Task: inverse folding
């Protein structure tokens, strides 16, 4: 983006989604792709705040978790916290190349909700954990957690500070694909574990928060699915060749993500199994979800 306000009158219905003219008015009287405005509205219809959820029982529940339960719970919470911190910035980075007003407002709202997710984890930590600062600091010191971030981090780092803009369309595609995998697959083992604790009558406040977060992520996955579909079918968007050239890459990144998830399951249950939940069950779920996506 070269200017925050293009002073020319432009018809954005004739502009591509990415790398077109800089935007002028934020106007919603006409749409090139109404689906993105509908997804913007749907996100706001689902607006929620974590502090509306009662988590006082979670404090005593957490104290009574076994060492194995606490390891599974803490590990997933660390990754959720890191993942949403990264996603919020990722969406803002990608939005800089958007030249369509309905996609712009959709992505603004998307980034806002990723911020709410991050606030949710802070809300839980501040009200449940004896030393939330120590927990936060431990996230970046956990090699397993940081390694999981590389799937999305690498592609966005390539586009940040890219002065020569070489292969910019390829980099935009790579970013969208990375977020698609993140929103559609990578979070879901951690979500399932959170729901498990809630089903067992433990950490129920956290499970309610994750229920809202998963609902949001399903919408965000829908945004990326529509983006990939449009970019792969609409010649005027200028990405059809790139999408076709990268069909094998789409399968490869999902395959890698599924492997990462099965490795994560192995790590989660390295201290022992939980009643009704183990590495085999969760790895099978990750593989099934990957195939489904």
Result:
């Amino acid at each position: 983006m070269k200017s925050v306000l293009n002073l020319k009158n432009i018809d954005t219905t004739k502009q591509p989604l990415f790398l077109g003219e800089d935007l002028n008015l934020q106007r919603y009287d006409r749409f090139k792709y109404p689906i993105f405005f509908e997804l913007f509205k749907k996100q706001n219809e689902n607006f929620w705040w974590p502090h509306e959820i009662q988590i006082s029982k979670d404090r005593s529940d957490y104290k009574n978790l076994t060492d194995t339960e606490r390891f599974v719970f803490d590990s997933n919470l660390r990754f959720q916290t890191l993942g949403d911190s990264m996603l919020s910035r990722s969406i803002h980075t990608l939005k800089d190349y958007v030249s369509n007003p309905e996609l712009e407002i959709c992505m603004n709202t998307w980034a806002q909700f990723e911020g709410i997710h991050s606030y949710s984890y802070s809300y839980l930590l501040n009200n449940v954990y004896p030393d939330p600062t120590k927990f936060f600091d431990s996230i970046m010191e956990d090699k397993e957690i940081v390694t999981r971030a590389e799937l999305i981090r690498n592609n966005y780092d390539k586009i940040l500070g890219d002065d020569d803009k070489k292969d910019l369309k390829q980099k935009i595609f790579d970013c969208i694909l990375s977020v698609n995998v993140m929103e559609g697959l990578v979070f879901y083992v951690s979500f399932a574990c959170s729901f498990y604790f809630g089903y067992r009558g433990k950490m129920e406040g956290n499970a309610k928060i994750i229920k809202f977060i998963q609902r949001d992520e399903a919408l965000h996955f829908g945004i990326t699915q529509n983006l990939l579909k449009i970019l792969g079918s609409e010649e005027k968007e200028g990405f059809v060749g790139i999408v076709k050239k990268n069909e094998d890459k789409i399968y490869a990144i999902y395959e890698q993500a599924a492997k990462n998830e099965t490795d994560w399951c192995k790590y989660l249950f390295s201290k022992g199994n939980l009643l009704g939940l183990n590495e085999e069950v969760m790895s099978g779920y990750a593989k099934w979800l990957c195939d489904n996506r």
Summary: Residues 204-233 form the longest helix (30 residues).
